[in-house]
Structures are given as structure tokens and as C-alpha cells.
Amino acid sequence: MRSALFAAENMEKESQQPGLRLQNSKLLKAELNGEIMARQGSMVAYQGQVQFQALGSGGVGKWLKSKLTGEGVPLMKCSGRGDVFFADRAADVHLIDLEQGDAISINGSNVLAFEPTLQYDIKMVQGMGMMSSAGLFNCVFTGRGRLAITTKGTPVVLTVDQPTYVDPQAAICWSATLQTGYHRADQLGLGTLIGRSTGEAFTMSFSGQGFVVVQPSEEPPPGAAHGAQQQQGGVLGGLLGG
């Protein structure tokens, strides 16, 4: 059988070391020899002896905060030996290696998978009040290990060494040490442009020393997204027995 489909770049990539690595720009591969945490529903294929356990109130109590905050991500634990492939609606996948002392704040909807050596919590985004359409709360990861995040399109990583402003719907993650806040459009002179609204009601502000990852796409308004998450969560909760 012949086809360009079977070209070398499309074949499964093998490694001798367990852990998370990219199969391609939109597909994450976990070479499993132990455990890995991943977003529920993100598994697209697996080989070997692998068990999947949905994580609710038992084992990962911090994620119960998502019921109150609307932030976070429904998790599953993958354990065993084998290869597991993850994806999220053909979004681009990026790997981040955290060292001891690092801390990164991530929009929960952009977390795909992470190693269990990392610690995480859901924390308030300081200075945003109720204005953040990216969510008043974010997932903060610390410790030593690898995690995978997703973006819609190729992102830009901004070095924050001067006042930086980002559309909150496009801000994916940033150094947790940065100071955050918001600016209304009229404060930045963006309220109107030749008599027309720019569509930017406000922007997130970042100051300090660090980075911000910005994707070239804006997420839907939080009302629609949160409503869909609540509906999905209700169905999922029913299937898992609460």
C-alpha cells in the first residue's frame, strides 16, 4: 500500500525515556511508565496496559475549587505502561519544563497534561476584579516537572521588562511573579477609533520581570463558555455518578 500518509513525519516517534513529548505540533505523546495527569476527554489513542481514572472529589481536592470559581480543568489520571496520545480540537501543543522555584499561571482551559511531580492550585488573578474574561482565577503550577499547554495558533512570548498590556481573552499563561491588573480602553485611548468602538473593553496589564504567552486568537465570551462547561460538567458528573 502506498500513500503520502505513510511518510516518515507521520509515523509514531519512539523514545527510550518515559515522559511527555510532542508527536507533532498538535499531538502530545506520553510514554507511560507510572502516572500522568491529563484533561478528561483528551485521549485520542493508546497502546499497552493503561488505566484511566476520572478525578473528582477524591485524590485531587484542589480541583473542587473549580465548582466555585469556574476555573480549572476536569482531570483524569493515566497509569500503567504504554503510549498514550492526547489532543484538544487540533490546537497547537507546547511543552514547558518547570524547575524548582518556578511558578507559572495558566488559563485552565489551556492545560492539556502534566507530570504528577508538579504541584498546582487555583488562585485568584490579582488586580482583575470581575473584569477578566479569561477568568478571575487561574491554575498556578509549581515544582519540578513537565506540562503541556495548548494554544489556538502559533503564540508570541512577550518579555515583560516594561508595562505590558494584553487582551485577556488572548493571554494564555504568564510568570506567576508578575503583577497583574486591568486598564479600561478609554484609559489607553482605545475606546473609539474614527467614531467606532475598537471592541476592546479593557486590557490586562503586566508589570515586573517575566513573560506572557499570547495566542493569535480570542476565546469566546466567558458567559457562553462557562455555560457550556457547566452543561458538560453536569452530564459528565451524571455519567461518573457525581
**Global structural class:** mainly beta
Biggest sheet statistics: 7 strands, antiparallel
Work out the oligomeric state of the chains in this entry. Answer: single chain
Ends: how far apart? 48 Å
Q: With helices defined by DSSP (H or I, 4 residues minimum), what is the helix count?
A: 2
Please give a handful of descriptors for the protein shown:
242 residues; mainly beta; 7-stranded antiparallel sheet; 18 strands; globular
Overview of this protein structure:
The protein has 242 residues and is mainly beta. Helix content is 10%, strand content 47%. It is built from two helices and 18 strands. The protein has helices spanning 65-69, 222-239; strands spanning 19-24, 27-39, 43-55, 75-86, 92-98, 103-106, 111-114, 118-124, 137-143, 145-151, 156-160, 164-166, 171-175, 179-184, 192-193, 196-197, 202-207, 210-214. The strands form four sheets. Strands 1, 2, 3, 4, 5, 7 and 10 form a seven-stranded antiparallel sheet that branches. The protein has a six-stranded antiparallel sheet with strand order 8-9-6-13-18-11. β15 (192-193) and β16 (196-197) form a beta hairpin. The longest helix is centred in the last third of the chain and has 18 residues, at 222-239. It is globular, with a radius of gyration of 19 Å. It starts with 18 loop residues before the first strand and ends with a helix. Mean pLDDT is 79; it is low at 192-198 and 221-242.
Summed up, what is this model?
Helix content is 10%, strand content 47%. The chain contains two helices and 18 strands.
